[in-house]
């Protein structure tokens, strides 16, 4: 069974399947947390096993907030700008596995466009992200800030007479 709910402009819930609440609001909250720079809240929404597997497979930082900070472009985080942009994401959710698995396509806000697609699972009454979004999963952050390379002039010995 597959069903969908769409959010455009304001949050409207459309549900089906056996899960008590389709995760549209949960996805919107994740987008808002990331877009607002509230990485601790976003990390609390992520499945721990899924994060550990991603972190290990891609050799990414082991701390969730560090990963978000390094992988999301600064232009998508609205820390000091107009945060009303966070309210207008388009979210299309499809449910499967009797409403226990969700796939969500996201667009219309800077952070939603960067993530593009997230996946979730519903266990023990709680939704958790198992797929964190394209920008996070495709990320290959360097462990340190790039250093400036110093170029040294080659030292030449004066030519020796033959």
Describe the structure.
- The chain is an alpha+beta fold and 162 residues long.
- The protein contains six helices and five strands, in the order E-H-H-H-H-E-E-H-E-E-H.
- 29% of the residues lie in helices and 20% in strands.
- It has a five-stranded antiparallel sheet with strand order 1-2-3-4-5.
- The model is unreliable at 1-20 and 145-154 (pLDDT under 50).
Order of helices and strands: EHHHHEEHEEH
Helix tally? Answer: 6
Number of DSSP-assigned strands: 5
Task: Show unreliable segments.
Answer: 1-20, 145-154
Task: Bin the strand percentage.
Answer: 15-25%
Rounded to the nearest angstrom, the radius of gyration is 21 Å
Structural class: alpha+beta
Distance between the termini: 88 Å
Spatial strand order of the main sheet: 1-2-3-4-5
Shape estimate: globular
Main β sheet profile: 5 strands, antiparallel
Total domain modules: 1
Helix content: 25-40%
